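Researcher: Please generate the 3D structure of the following complex. Treat every line as part of one assembly.
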Amino acid sequence: MNRAPDPRLVVQAAPFLRPQVSTPRIMGDVLIALAPATAAGLWFFGLSALLVVLASTAACVATDWALGGRAQLADLSAVVTGVLVGLILPPSLPLWMAALGGFVAIALGKAAWGGLGHNLFNPALVGRAFLQAAFPIALTTWVPPQGLFALYSGNLALPFMSAPADAVTSATPLGQMKFLGVSTPLADLFWGNVSGSIGETSAAAILLGALYLVARRACDWRLPAGMLGAAALLAELLHQIAPAKYPGAMFTLLSGGLLLGAVFMASDPVTSPLAPRGAWIVAAGAGGLVVLIRFWGGRPEGVMYAILLMNSASPLIDRALQPRRFGGSAPKVGR
Amino acid sequence: MSLGRTFRHGIHPEEHKEATAALAVERMPFVERYILPLSQHAGAPSRPLVEVGARVRRGQKIAEAVGFISTTLHASVDGQVVAIAPRPHPSGKLVPAIEIVADRSSPQRFTAVSDLGGALDPFHLEHERFVSELQLAGLVGLGGAAFPTHVKYRVPEGGKIDRLLVNGCECEPFLTSDHRLMLERTADVVRGAEIAAHQLGAKLVVFGVEHNKPDAIAALERAVASVTAANAAAPGGDRPEMRVVGLAVKYPQGAEKMLIRAVWGEEVPSGKLPLDLGIVVNNVATMAAIADWFDLRRPLVERLVTVAGPGVRRPANLLVPLGTPVRAVLEHCGGLEESTREVVMGGPMMGTPLASLDVPIVKGTSGLLAFTDAEARLPAEYTCIKCGRCVEACPQFLNPSRLGRLARAGRFDEMVGYHAKDCVECGSCSYACPSGIPIVQLIRVAKGALREQALAGAKPKP
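Model: Done. Output below.
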């Protein structure tokens, strides 16, 4: 018998079939899903939008590299966080603030907790919450959409110098609603020709990304669905009680950062419960809080705080709602 | 019968069955040397009945059961015992084995039925005798777990079995030996099931087969119909009702508890056995082996093995005498590709990795798979992002993410509260994990440590 030498066998534990999905692929899918919203931001807020997103992303990647080493960048999560930070900032924000937001998002939002998978709060929202507290004026200075070639002078402000005022500022649809009682046409809200954060303007673009995310199973659909559903329900209920005072479900869904937050931040697997029932609870809580803050809070928008608050409740909810084991409850005996 | 019955959760790995599904079973030629470990089954090792130097005949009893949860071992060839000593075992350990050098001049025929006391009519046999006959036949579950079959058939005091579930799922990718068996030995499978059901007092026999084997389903339906018709014509026809149920293609459909859930929608309570619901589950190959013993008095000395995987040059379904070295089987199949890195005994989800090709084919060997560099490479590992894919994959509804984290932290005691002991080690979590975390292996290690703890605790302190 001709005997070829034996191959050098490795002994690894079962299973021997490898996973078909990887964390970088999931993160890559999120980036692809963010592309339409980013493109819409560019379309309406021009070069400024691009610069802000680049600044925040570069800061996130650099911080992740500095704190966790180069290997850590492979999971692409820092890029996702960076793009998200940029998309939830005003287009005319000084670029150094956008970069600072990116740094805080990774350093305090992720690395300080022990890195990816260990953080309690969504890193991008941590970055924005920090900026909101540190620079309340800059973070609430809104400009009207000026098209693909727009470059707002605010972007170029030097660190810790007062920002040069933009010639034209414009309240967001939520601000107009809250402080002036003026509604914005739903078509504008849907397509995105309104002022606001870079990524939140076009509902259509966000929904396109959401479809992709769900189709690729890159996020738990329950989280955005639950948050949007709860917000719409509560808003419509209050609207029916006092139509003049509160906007209805459609305005609530399409205005501000609700869609963007629900699809890309509430759905963050790290900061949301594992169990499906837990996901529904957290999502509904976040949706409800958005409406409460918008209608009765001091600020026109509440998506960021709503999600951050529910993030903090996630671990408890997860612990309380462990899955029922197979055969663990009264079995269905008999036929 | 609705199509696509199934259990909840689970995974859909690529099937990879196309390479061998259409290959009829061929007989593995006899080789020079056979290694028959005394432990080829769950339970106590068998005790040798032969001495070194003894001449043995194919089918001869060469080791006997020690206690109830143990079974008999038979020579798989005519030949001479050359050693009774530790030999490499698929588990990776050296395990006492009987080594036989085959008699070259022998035609390797089975020992004549008359030598064993003639055929037995299993339909007129005391139940206790039936159980001991199964033990004498050396039968174990041929699906892979190799649990002694007779143990399942001893109906406990006051217990009542009303259903027999014959497992033809073969949900492990790559494997097709059960599929071939159902096609080529359909009548024997049904015959074995009839015997088993009669002895259990079961009123209903269900053959559960995944829908990716429509020809097997059709063959079984035909066989069942003809047997049913024959029984209806015969006098005193108190035979069980038999049904074939098509099931969705999903892993691990063939796990006992998942299969019961799929067929009847019932959950075996945690910590209990199918027996507690009045159900016995057995593999299709075990059914054919039961028929062989009572009709032909052939003990378990050979089994079907699927040889496949990217590292195998000529994939095949082989009827292999027990004890045949893995090396010989692979050589018969054209040898291994040079890029082979991993040889696995069993399926790709729950099989055993082999460290040596000198180990023998044993009673629980359902497949031999060879994987190359490309498949053997471990996935890059990232931290858990709590995506929940493992939770949605786990057929036991556990929280593998949590269990994996606790296991890695060495917090084994806490894992008990998360029902680690309910884990069936199917590997769905590891397969589903995008972060490449070896979750099932982490849980396995923890379960092992917990078992050892329990054993240490049970022993009286010196």
